[in-house]
Write a structure and sequence with these properties.
mainly beta; 256 residues; 5-stranded antiparallel beta sheet; Sialidase; Sialidase_sf; Neuraminidase
């Protein structure tokens, strides 16, 4: 996907319908002097929080130093009552895991406070094919956190920024000792798009995974909070159904 559609309001600039386009450049979230140009974008995610719409996306580029194909996470924001999209920033590379060359399928949740986000991201080495036998190739799930600047204040100057530590590990207890048997799966990553918060409380994060027999499926992570008490759903989709999205339907039912 080289762009995403914004729904113009009466006061918005209708010329700015394309949020991301090839050759866009973004500054790195942790090093503003590092500016990277991207040739394409895919797996967009849109969330709304506290008067601001945030668009998050995979951003693809070729590293000029070693010619590796790399993937970053980029984000822009716009006030929900109209206007222009911000210039945005990117997590050009994972500053805390040097084995990761690609950050894939950002799947975003809005936190309870309504001004912070967290996204499940698949961290991969340059030669790793997602949802396949890894062998000695590298994969690690990661979290990418951001916030709306001045989100707690009634001000016109609101825009999304990545937090000072832009990436981190997934919740320790989930990764190291999940009671719902994480070992059912060899690998998992987000479905792309956004997670949701059910009316009765739990967060639902769509993911895709590869089982021990090599079957690719979709399922959800259920979370009491955005950063803890995560567990896999017991059931999965039929084999081969991947890249899921979720909607709350009715009477506590989900549509995936």
């Amino acid at each position: 996907c080289c762009g995403g559609g914004a729904v113009p309001t009466e006061t918005s600039n209708s010329r700015d319908k394309i949020i991301f386009k090839g050759k866009d450049s973004f500054s790195d979230a942790e090093n503003a002097d590092l500016k990277q140009e991207f040739h394409s974008f895919r797996a967009p995610s849109l969330v709304y929080m506290n008067g601001v719409v945030v668009a998050t996306v995979e951003a693809h580029y070729i590293n000029n130093t070693d010619q590796k194909s790399c993937v970053s996470i980029a984000a822009k924001s716009m006030k929900s009552n109209g206007g222009k999209w911000t210039e945005g920033t990117a997590i050009v590379f994972d500053h805390y895991d040097v084995n990761i060359d690609r950050l894939l399928s950002p799947t975003t949740l809005v936190k309870d406070n309504d001004y912070e986000t967290t996204a499940l991201v698949g961290g991969y080495g340059a030669s790793t094919t997602p949802l396949t036998e890894l062998g000695d190739k590298y994969w690690m799930p990661r979290m990418a956190d951001g916030e709306v600047k001045n989100g707690r204040k009634e001000t016109e100057n609101k825009q999304f920024e990545w937090q000072s530590r832009s990436t981190s590990e997934v919740p320790y207890f989930f990764w190291e000792g999940n009671s719902t048997n994480r070992n059912r799966f060899k690998q998992f990553l987000g479905g792309g798009g956004a997670g949701i918060k059910m009316d009765d409380g739990p967060y639902v994060l769509p993911i895709q995974a590869v089982k021990n027999d090599g079957t690719k499926v979709s399922l959800v992570i259920l979370a009491k909070r955005t950063t803890d008490r995560w567990e896999f759903s017991k059931d999965t989709s039929p084999a081969g159904c991947i890249q899921p999205a979720v909607l709350e339907w009715k009477e506590k039912e989900l549509l995936m």
